[in-house]
Amino acid sequence: MTWFAWRQHRGQALWAALTVAALCALMLRVGLHASHTLAPFRAAGCIGRGQDPSELHGSGCAGLEGFGPDFNYAIPLFELGVPLVVAVIGALVGAPLVAREFEQRTHLAAWTQSVPRRRWYTAKVLTAAAVLALTGLIAGLANDRLQRPLTEGGLTSSRWPWFFSVGLAPVGEILLSFALAVAAGAWLRRTLPAVGIALVGFLVLLLCTGRAVQTLTPTSHTTGPRPSVPRDGWIIHGNSSYHPASQFWPLQVTFLITLLVLATGLLAFGWRATRTHGA
């Protein structure tokens, strides 16, 4: 059954892989360009001194001031674009998984064979989810490599602003969008409305879970008469509550687990529609 599911949806897996490959190639090109641009400043010891013009002027590092304007486009393109791209991929793969069977009336044949309906649903979902998880992981790791020279050059203060677009985050995001689309397609029996609902639901759940992980997990607090958050900290409330750099990966894992739990619940909800809907 797994092999059948793979053959049935390998076209979707191929275009998803090609889309992410093109995105990763673009990330690699920008990252190499940024790293090459920083090379002479790195050799001159300019990196880490800060990008305050008063500090750079007359020190032989003044050219570093132009790094930010040259690479500002990377913020909307990759920091914001990666979660959006993986969400669209997940929705487009998940929506027709069950809905197309209803639209083409092929469920009448698929659900009357010797393969139980539960096994049919599980095989299709797990096969697609495995491919999508790998796709999200590749995109997250590639974007993590990209943000390093951009942060090093002072484009952002730390990698915290990239939290939802690097590392493990895209894995959970693509699976959440996929699960939303599967569930919506199973209940609505229509592919296009399921895609729309999945994307809207994804944005709402991403904002809610992201905010919950950021604010409900333990934080550190600054002390002293003039408290200030470390440069590599994730500010939560004003200038006193923050997540230190050491919490980056624990929070990534927390965020991933939260999204996986939501995705599992949504897939179970989709199974309920598949189980109860007849011809």
UniProtKB/TrEMBL annotation:
Instruction: Give a GO cellular-component term.
Output: plasma membrane
Gene Ontology MF terms in the entry: ABC-type transporter activity
Residue spans crossing the bilayer: 80-99, 120-142, 162-188, 195-213, 249-271
Per UniProt, the keywords (alphabetical) are: Membrane, Transmembrane, Transmembrane helix
Coiled-coil parts of chain: none
Name the chain's protein: Transmembrane transport protein
Native organism is Frankia alni (strain DSM 45986 / CECT 9034 / ACN14a)
Q: What is the lineage of its organism?
A: Bacteria, Bacillati, Actinomycetota, Actinomycetes, Frankiales
